[in-house]
């Protein structure tokens, strides 16, 4: 197969990376995608160490290359990016690889009060990679960093449940409220946090809950669109962009895989990407 016609691999510890896939599909409508949710081991960021996350990242990368012949990899997981993307780039230099990091630099530029909130998993926010990122923006703003233990798992668990009559009366809303209240006042006045960085791909799916808690004037910053633009740049540089007459049928162009239960992925695909259940399959990756 012509390499440009091969799919882009995308993976996350669970369904959170679907928010990145959503942005990738909008930016690159002629591309094919294989998305893998390692839900059998999710979430990475709350309880998994770097060695485990690194091993899973390498195993999944090998699987996507050998079984699906991907032409590029998007690590749609902040924790896996922090733990292992440098290793993937070193061990597989012929594979264009795009990772995620909390958008501290854009947030610092956008903030008017000079106070920026950052929420993410403990694995991401206690990583050496995040420490270096934080040091790189020292003096540009004051960053209030809050690990949100349990939030990614609650979002993952909520996927297979029916949408509640009141979307704010949920477990995820209660967890969001606990951590947001711990960060201090939000708003546009001096001393308030006016910009909130979503440092986990799962959190995009509770943006409504977060918005209700921080207020309409606080800016929420996520990384899906910048990652999609960077993926386009890398593919263009390596002459790997799919031709504009390539497949654009949603069902034919996206395949969703999980190492966990099938139902939650099917429900998430339908709820957030409007994709049918038959796009989804279970796989085993030792």
From TrEMBL:
<keyword id="KW-0961">Cell wall biogenesis/degradation</keyword>
<feature type="binding site">
    <location>
        <begin position="44"/>
        <end position="45"/>
    </location>
    <ligand>
        <name>substrate</name>
    </ligand>
</feature>
<dbReference type="GO" id="GO:0009252">
    <property type="term" value="P:peptidoglycan biosynthetic process"/>
</dbReference>
<dbReference type="InterPro" id="IPR018187">
    <property type="entry name" value="Asp/Glu_racemase_AS_1"/>
</dbReference>
<dbReference type="GO" id="GO:0071555">
    <property type="term" value="P:cell wall organization"/>
</dbReference>
<dbReference type="GO" id="GO:0008360">
    <property type="term" value="P:regulation of cell shape"/>
</dbReference>
<feature type="active site" description="Proton donor/acceptor">
    <location>
        <position position="200"/>
    </location>
</feature>
<dbReference type="InterPro" id="IPR001920">
    <property type="entry name" value="Asp/Glu_race"/>
</dbReference>
<feature type="active site" description="Proton donor/acceptor">
    <location>
        <position position="77"/>
    </location>
</feature>
<feature type="binding site">
    <location>
        <begin position="201"/>
        <end position="202"/>
    </location>
    <ligand>
        <name>substrate</name>
    </ligand>
</feature>
<dbReference type="InterPro" id="IPR004391">
    <property type="entry name" value="Glu_race"/>
</dbReference>
<keyword id="KW-0133">Cell shape</keyword>
<feature type="binding site">
    <location>
        <begin position="12"/>
        <end position="13"/>
    </location>
    <ligand>
        <name>substrate</name>
    </ligand>
</feature>
<feature type="binding site">
    <location>
        <begin position="78"/>
        <end position="79"/>
    </location>
    <ligand>
        <name>substrate</name>
    </ligand>
</feature>
<keyword id="KW-0413">Isomerase</keyword>
<dbReference type="InterPro" id="IPR015942">
    <property type="entry name" value="Asp/Glu/hydantoin_racemase"/>
</dbReference>
<comment type="similarity">
    <text>Belongs to the aspartate/glutamate racemases family.</text>
</comment>
<protein>
    <recommendedName>
        <fullName>Glutamate racemase</fullName>
        <ecNumber>5.1.1.3</ecNumber>
    </recommendedName>
</protein>
<dbReference type="Pfam" id="PF01177">
    <property type="entry name" value="Asp_Glu_race"/>
</dbReference>
<comment type="function">
    <text>Provides the (R)-glutamate required for cell wall biosynthesis.</text>
</comment>
<comment type="pathway">
    <text>Cell wall biogenesis; peptidoglycan biosynthesis.</text>
</comment>
<keyword id="KW-0573">Peptidoglycan synthesis</keyword>
<dbReference type="GO" id="GO:0008881">
    <property type="term" value="F:glutamate racemase activity"/>
</dbReference>
